[in-house]
Each structure stands twice: as C-alpha cells, then as structure tokens.
Amino acid sequence: MSIATTNPATGEVLKTFDAATPAEIDAAIGRAESAFHTLRGTTLEQRAGWLNAAADLLDAERDEVARTMTTEMGKTYASARAEVGKCAAGARYYAANAAGFLADEPADAPAVGARRAFVRYSPIGPVLAVMPWNFPLWQVMRFAAPALMAGNTGLLKHASNVPQTALYLGDLFTRAGFPAGAFATLLIGSAAVEQVLTDPRVRAATLTGSEGAGRSVAQIAGRELKKTVLELGGSDPFVVMPSADLDAAAEVATTARCQNNGQSCIAAKRFIVHTDVYDDFAERFTRRMAALRVGDPMADTTDVGPLATEQGRDDVAAQIRDAVEAGATVLTGGVAPERPGWWYPPTVVADLTPRMRMWQEEVFGPVAGLYRAADYDEAIALANGTGFGLGANAWTRDEQEQQRFIADLDAGNVFINGMTTSYPQLPFGGVKNSGYGRELSALGMREFCNVKTVWVGGEQATPGPGAGHANE
Ligand code: NAP
Fold it and tell me: How many angstroms is it from 233 CA to the middle of ligand 1?
C-alpha cells in the first residue's frame, strides 16, 4: 500500500509520501536507542511533566488534529474531536498514576532468606508499535503514554493511509519535552517491519490490527525471541435476553455497531436475540439503523461517514453479497451507493447460516448480523462460536443471568447492559484469535517492563525498597 492521504469521502489523493529507506530506519532505531539511555535516567516527575505537556498540546490543537484524522480516514469530525480529548485524558491518567503502577513491590524476604526482597518494574528499551488507522490517535496514545512513563522509547509504524496523523504523533512528544528520538514515526510499509523487528536494539513490539498482520509480526518476533502484545480483530456478540430494556438495548446497539463508521474492533457485530423478544428488538433496532444520517464526515448532522479505504468498502460489500446469495435477508441497507468515495450504508442482515462468510468473519463496516437464540445455552453457543474473543455484551436485568454471562462469555471484555468501550482505568485485550496481552491500566504499562526480582542479603543497613530508583 502506498503511503498517502486519500480523502475517503471523495476518493481524492491529497498527498503522497516517500517511505523511509533502510538507512533512515537504521538511524531512527539508533536515535531511539540513545534516547532510551537518556530517558531511563530521568525521574517519573520529569516524564509526567512532559506527558502532561503533550496532553496540553493535544487540547490546544484539538480542532486541527481532528480535521486531519477526518480527512485521512473519514471518521466524523465530532468523533475525531472526542478522540483527541480522550488521548489528552489518557496521557494525564498515566502521568498521574505511573508512580503507583511502577512502585517497587515488597516480597516476603524472610521466606526467601533475604534481608530484603522486592519486585521492580524496569524499562526494557525501544519498542516497535504497529498501529491501525481506525482510531489513529488513541490506538497510538494508549501504547505511547504508559511506555514513555515507564522509561521505554517508541518507534511508530502507523497504517499507510494516515501518514499526516502519524507525523503529528512523531513530533508531539518531542515538542512536549521528551528527549529527541524517544518517540518517533517511521513512514514505512508493512514489508519494512521485519527490518525493525529483527534489529537487536528493538526489544519488543505491540501490534493493533488484523489477525493476518498479527500472525506475521508474531512470527518474526517469535524467531527473534521478542515479546509481543497483539490487539487483533473481533466479531463481538451483543446478546439481548427477554428481561432486557429493549429500547435502551436497541439504542445502544445502534451506536455500538455504527460508531466510527462501523470500523471498531470492539464494535458489536453479531446481535444474538432471545426468540421471545427477537421480532420486537429487530424492529426497534432496524428502525434506528435506517434512520442514521450518512454524509459528509465534517458536518455536525452526520452520524456515519465513508469507510476508510476502497478495499475496506469492497470487502464489506463482498461479505454482504455472499450472505445474500446464500439466502440471508437484508432488513435495511445492503447496497453501496454510486458516488465518489468509499460509502456503505448502515445495514441489518437476518437469516444468517454457518456457511456464510459473515458467520465467522469480522465485518469492518456498519453492518449488523441478527441471530435468533432459542434459550440461554444457544445464545452462549452463538456468542462464543467464532474464532474471536475480544469484547462481548449481554443485556439482561436478571442478576443471576448476568452472573452466568460473566462466567460463560469467552472474551477479554464483558460489558453487561452497555457497550464495550476502552477506559485508561480498565485493562483491554482479547483471547483466542483476538490476540494476547493487555493494554491500559497498570497491566498495560507493565507489559513492556522487565519484572525484575531483587534479592538482597548481607548485613549492611540500607534504605527500604525503591530508594534511589529513578522510577520513584
Ligand atoms: P491491518 O491491515 O492489519 O493494519 C494494521 C497495521 O498493521 C498497519 O500499520 C499495517 O500497515 C500493518 N500491517 C499489515 N499487514 C502487516 C504485515 N504483514 N506485517 C507487518 N505489519 C502489517 O488492519 P487494518 O485493516 O488497518 O485495521 C483493522 C483491523 O484492526 C480490524 O481487524 C480491527 O478489528 C483491528 N483492530 C483491533 C483493535 C484492538 O484493540 N484489538 C483495535 C483497532 C483495530 P499498512 O497500513 O502499511 O498495511
């Protein structure tokens, strides 16, 4: 894929970029390595100050950054502005909480024959971040903020269709005060990832993206014995049981499916409805999906903009065609309009069967599949019945049933009577083919730390755990 800004609302190529050469990649890794040696010697207070300054820059530049995101990948301007705000809040969260997350953890010294024993969370070095275009700022911030606070440095390989957002992020942290090279953007295609990951100075990688990209990066990292965190795709179930508030469920279902023009890993994609309320829910949900306003992503009145790429739009159209040809019923939408740009309307499809692609595949656009479940057991079987395990939603007012869903849903995130969302305070990640490892919260920050066991014997009197530690 060429590295370019193409407006998905019009299909117009606005700006193209040259990819970094192997020598330029090598030099950037060198800067990340030397910035690491500087950064690990700084204090948490210094790093928190710089991260708060990055948050202030985001707040001050919110409109401009949001406009760039909307132009590059088509999300509505309102949602782009909200994303910038979320990034600023996320940065401030890690600035405020890193000291607690990284504090030395005392262990039972007498039990291990030590005078003192504790665990220290130490930085590991430059980390490669391979990131997707769908939340082009937030996906990067949720890696960068904890990584930089922990004392690691970052090399960003962003998706090829969001180069201007990538370049903004590459400058942001240096402008905020971090040492030059502590966080840098590499404008490279996916084929150049191997050069970065096989370089001994790069210690680990995080990837958010498709299953195929995850497998490819994990294979290289496995060969190189480097740790990875993978945040991959999902086909999240949204289960509606008879005791649910159907109006609230239908309203949230519409947002959960169509937020970000339907291109969210944690969007609800499969709507599994108990047969007793199936017809009622289907009517309420379809009516709301059909009422969404599709149009110019810069306009305040728009709910759903274009899909980000021509390939993405074509993939969605092909999945729906496949289902319809095999007997599925389209309740609303289902036909891509003839106009420039990569448009696909909010769509609801029913009467799905296992031989249709949609049954197992992720649909990355504003398309909902409706499934009828005879009872709780069938609902769970359907919910857990794909290769993915990212998020899962269940709607029920029955508390015992809520407990059963929490225990039985095979997903990294379970939201009851709500839609899956990421919060800095909560760990985020998947199971099965949705990946492994966690982002956000203290767990996300520690993924790229050396969990260092410290055992101290001897007689001399020394201060307690953590004394003199730069991370204090
Ligand atoms: P993608 O094609 O996998 O791209 C994601 C990133 O990986 C891009 O930077 C891409 O670079 C790079 N990439 C692609 N193939 C690669 C390879 N073989 N080796 C190394 N790097 C490679 O995914 P996408 O279509 O942009 O994003 C949508 C997918 O991401 C969906 O499946 C969605 O569910 C998932 N996602 C998951 C999460 C989560 O947190 N779990 C969040 C958001 C999105 P190029 O652009 O240069 O190809």
Answer: 9
Q: What CATH number is given for 4-232+430-454 in this structure?
A: 3.40.605.10
Task: Write out the two tokens for 149.
Answer: 């606070």
Nearest CA to ligand 1 atom 21: 190
pLDDT at position 466: 52
Q: What's residue 459's pLDDT? A: 73
* Residue from 147, 27, 14 nearest 73 by CA: 14
Active-site positions read 231, 265
What number of H helices and E strands is found in the chain? 15, 18
How far is it, in rounded angstroms, from Cα 454 to Cα 449? 14
**pLDDT at position 1, please?**
72
The alpha carbon of residue 340 and the mean position of all alpha carbons in its chain are separated, in whole angstroms, by 29
Ranges of the chain with pLDDT below 50: 467-468, 472
Cβ(221) to ligand 1 under 6 A?
no
Could you tell me if the CB of 189 is within 6 A of ligand 1? Answer: yes
What residue type is assigned to position 422 of the chain?
S
Q: Which one, of 380, 419, 417, 415, lies nearest residue 398 by Cα?
A: 417
- C-alpha 352/C-alpha 472 separation (Å) is 55
Q: What is the pTM of this model?
A: 0.97
CATH of 236-416, one of 3.20.20.370, 3.40.309.10, 3.40.50.11600, 3.30.70.20: 3.40.309.10
d(CA 149, CA 445): 8
Q: 281: CA distance to ligand 1 center in Å?
A: 33
- Report the nearest-CA residue for atom 14 of ligand 1: 213
